[in-house]
Write a structure and sequence with these properties.
Length: about 325
């Protein structure tokens, strides 16, 4: 008679196969049949969608008014220059999440990614071509670089870029590819267990292992809602935990407000995670959030009102106390 299980086998073996500086295989086994793909597929999605990277979000070029303009003495027109710039991968130094950097070049010269390295930013693709200048030509430009996830269209980057700036589509994701394969592995006399091999390749902004670690943190954070919102009262019976309705609503993530990308990004970059954090702020505090323009401010106030609350509004003392504890625990 075969042994009857009451719990699935938990994998015990974990290996990292470093292929190159920017590529690695993450290997784990043994999984029960079907379990490997159940974990590998969402991890791949998180790697591609939630890994934090850096990208230029706006550029101002002396002598150019729009992206279809040209600069005297530069071989590339502005549209080609911008396409080349998007191929260059930046990494801000010192823990910075935003930077505005100015560059000045004089021809004749060929400008590559490595020429943009300074004490504020590291270029992880130094050989990428940017522009070619003829003799007696100059190129002066400023770039705004930001930290983010995924893809953000140019119209959603900022409310107010500043005079002369051209907004850019931003592709932040530092993970170039994430693939997996499932292999059978023998456990005792059973050949039906599985091993997952997750291949991760990055652009150099982040190591494959750090990207994998971050994707795990995102997955845990997404699953944590089930720990906080439900409790098991009896076998096979799941009931929602009792909580003050206001506290429960104000403890929701700012995602629940349905904000535009630009408004959400401003709050997220200022580490504002819960709706209650906005409700506890004064109007001046909200207006002073970094890079928050009037349009985004008005949208946040309106969305909060639709949610049933006001910026700087009156909340019950017990709700304020409990909410502050939750915010401190983040």
């Amino acid at each position: 008679m075969k042994k009857i299980k009451t719990t699935p086998l938990a994998p015990q073996e974990f290996e990292v196969e470093q292929i190159s500086e920017n590529e690695a295989n993450i290997v784990a086994y043994p999984f029960e049949t079907g379990y490997a793909i159940s974990l590998a597929h969402p991890l791949r999605r998180f790697l591609l969608s939630s890994s934090v990277g850096y990208a230029p979000i706006a550029i101002k070029i002396e002598g150019a008014k729009h992206e279809f303009d040209s600069v005297r003495g530069m071989l590339e027109d502005i549209s080609d220059f911008i396409l080349n710039l998007k191929e260059i991968r930046f990494k801000l130094l010192g823990g910075a999440t935003e930077a505005e950097i100015t560059y000045n070049f004089a021809g004749p010269c060929t400008i590559k990614g490595g020429d943009l390295t300074n004490n504020e930013v590291e270029i992880v693709t130094p050989n990428t071509h940017l522009a070619t200048l003829n003799e007696d030509s100059t190129l002066n430009f400023s770039i705004k670089i930001a930290q983010g996830i995924g893809y953000v269209a140019s119209e959603d980057t900022y409310d107010e870029l500043g005079e002369g700036y051209i907004a850019l589509d931003a592709y932040f994701t530092p993970v170039r590819s994430a693939t997996y394969k499932i292999e059978n592995v023998l456990v005792e006399d059973n050949p039906n267990f599985e091993r997952v091999i997750l291949n991760i390749r990055t652009d150099g902004q982040i190591s494959p292992v750090d990207a994998f670690r971050n994707s795990l943190e995102v997955m845990y954070a997404q699953l944590a809602v089930f720990n906080s919102e439900i409790s098991v009262k009896a076998p096979a019976t799941i009931e929602r935990s009792e909580e003050n309705p206001d506290l429960k609503r104000l403890s929701a993530h700012i995602d629940s407000l349905g904000l535009s990308a630009r408004s959400f990004n401003c709050l997220d970059r200022s580490n504002i995670k819960l709706i209650g954090e906005i409700a506890l702020m004064s109007t001046n505090d909200l207006k002073n959030v970094k890079n928050l323009g009037k349009k985004s401010y008005d949208e946040i106030v309106e969305k909060l009102q639709e949610f049933g609350y006001e910026v700087g509004g009156d909340l019950a003392d017990d709700v304020v106390s409990a909410l502050k504890k939750k915010i401190e625990a983040l």
